[in-house]
Design brief:
Bound molecules: uridine-diphosphate-N-acetylglucosamine
Number of helices: 11
Helix content: 40-55%
Distance between the termini: 41 Å
Largest sheet: 7 strands, parallel
Radius of gyration: 19 Å
Number of strands: 13
Length: 343
C-alpha cells in the first residue's frame, strides 16, 4: 500500500513542487494549507502535472482542534511541515505574528504526531541559521549564529523544539532540511512561485521586471567584499529541492536514519552573485533587464553557500539542474502567469 504524507503548506511554492515529486515517487499526499500566502488553483497545476487529485483541507496549523480532525481522518506515515510565514522584513515589524504562526504550528504538529503515532517529521529549515559564517562554504557542523530577524529566530527555535522533542519522545524522529535559496519553477510551467504584492525575493522581482510589471530591479549593494561587489547566495532549483524531501521521507520510512534528529544542507555548493544572476537571466532568456544598483538592504548577509557533501553522500541526493536551466524555467513560469491573466 502506498504510504501517505501530510504536506502542510502544500499549496505554497516549495510545498507544491514537493507534492508533485512525492506523487511521482508513488506516495499519497494530503495537503493542509490556510491559503494565507497561496492559491487553491495550485491544486489544478499539481493535477495537470501528475494526473492525480490531491485531498486538500483548508486548515490553519495553529488551530489544534481542526488539525486534529485531519490527523483523525488520515493515517499518515510522515509529515512534511512547510506551513510558515517567511518574509524577513514583515517579521521585524510583526514579531508576535511570526513567533505565533511558526512556533505554535510546529508544536501542534508534534503533539498530533504523538497522539496519532505518526513517527516521521521533515522540517523546512533555512541557511539563515548560519548567519554570516566565518568560513565558507557552510557545512552542517558550522555553528549556528544568533538570528538577525524574528523570522530567522523562528527557524532556530523550531530546530530546538524538534531536537528536544525527539530526545523526550521516543516515537518521534525528524530530518531538518536547511534550504539555501530555492528558485525556478517546475519544467512544465504549471506550478511556480506566486508572490503576493511586491516580491521580496530576487527571482520573482527579476521575472516581474522582465515582464514589465515592475519598472526596475534594485540590486541591493555593489560594495560587498565579493568579486563583483554584490551578495553571494546558493541558488537551488526548486524541483531539486523538492526531490530532497522525497529522499528524506524514504530514509525515515525505510528506517535508515543514523540518529533521531538529522540535519542536512540542501544547496548546490556553488555561490553565485546577484549580478551574475541578472546577467545569466538576460543571456539565457535573450532579453535585457532594467536594473540599477542601490544601497545595501538592511539585514542582508554578504555571502553564503552550502557544502552539500554530507547530503550528497548520506542522502544520495544531489542538485542536478544548472542555473541556466533554472532561470529559463523561472521566465517560462512568469510567461505562463501573464498568459493566464490575458486569457
Ligand atoms: C531570505 C532569508 C532566507 C529565507 C528567504 C525566504 C536571510 C539571510 N535570508 O533569503 O533565510 O529563507 O529570504 O524568503 O534571512 N536582492 C536584490 N534585489 C531584490 C531582491 C533581492 O538585489 O529586489 C538580492 C539580496 O540582496 C540578496 C539576494 O538578492 O543578496 C537574494 O535575496 P532574496 O531572494 O530576498 O533571499 P535572501 O535574502 O538570501
Amino acid at each position: 500500500m502506498a504510504k501517505t504524507v501530510l504536506v502542510t503548506g502544500g499549496t505554497g511554492y516549495i510545498g507544491s513542487h514537493t507534492t508533485v515529486e512525492l506523487l511521482e515517487a508513488g506516495y499519497d499526499v494530503v495537503i493542509v494549507d490556510n491559503l494565507s500566502n497561496s492559491e487553491k488553483s495550485v491544486l489544478k497545476g499539481i493535477e495537470k502535472i501528475t494526473g492525480r487529485k490531491v485531498p486538500f483541507r483548508k486548515v490553519d496549523c495553529g488551530d489544534l482542534s481542526r488539525l486534529r480532525g485531519v490527523f483523525a481522518r488520515h493515517p499518515f506515515d510522515a509529515v512534511i511541515h512547510f506551513a510558515a510565514s517567511k518574509a524577513v522584513g514583515e517579521s521585524v515589524e510583526q514579531p508576535l505574528l511570526y513567533y505565533r504562526n511558526n512556533l505554535v504550528s510546529l508544536m501542534n504538529i508534534i503533539q498530533l504526531m504523538r497522539e496519532y503515532n505518526v513517527p516521521n517529521l521533515v522540517f523546512s529549515s533555512s541557511c539563515t541559521v548560519y548567519g554570516q559564517a566565518e568560513k565558507l562554504p557552510v557545512s552542517e557542523q558550522t555553528p549556528r549564529r544568533e538570528a538577525t530577524s524574528p523570522y530567522g529566530n523562528t527557524k532556530h527555535i523550531c530546530e530546538d523544539i524538534i531536537r528536544d522533542s525527539v530526545a523526550a519522545y521516543p516515537g518521534i524522529r525528524s530530518i531538518a532540511l536547511r534550504y539555501f535559496n530555492p528558485i525556478g519553477a517546475h519544467p512544465s510551467a504549471e506550478i511556480g512561485e506566486l508572490p503576493r504584492g511586491v516580491p521580496n525575493n530576487l527571482i520573482p522581482f527579476v521575472t516581474q521586471t522582465a515582464a514589465g510589471i515592475r519598472p526596475m530591479l534594485s540590486v541591493f549593494g555593489d560594495d560587498y567584499n565579493t568579486p563583483d561587489g554584490s551578495c553571494i547566495r546558493d541558488y537551488i532549483n526548486v524541483t531539486d529541492l523538492a526531490k530532497a524531501h522525497v529522499v528524506a521521507v524514504d530514509r525515515m520510512t525505510g528506517d535508515r536514519m543514523k540518529s533521531g534528529f538529522e540535519v542536512f544542507n540542501v544547496g548546490t555548493g556553488r555561490g553565485v552573485s546577484t549580478l551574475e544572476v541578472v546577467r545569466t537571466f538576460e543571456k539565457v532568456n535573450n532579453l535585457k533587464l532594467n536594473y540599477k544598483i542601490v544601497g545595501r538592504r538592511p539585514g542582508d548577509i554578504e555571502a553564503v553557500w552550502a557544502d552539500p557533501a554530507y547530503a550528497n553522500d548520506e542522502l544520495g541526493w544531489k542538485a542536478e539542474k544548472s542555473l541556466e536551466e533554472t532561470l529559463r524555467s523561472a521566465w517560462a513560469w512568469q510567461q505562463h502567469l501573464d498568459g493566464k491573466k490575458s486569457e
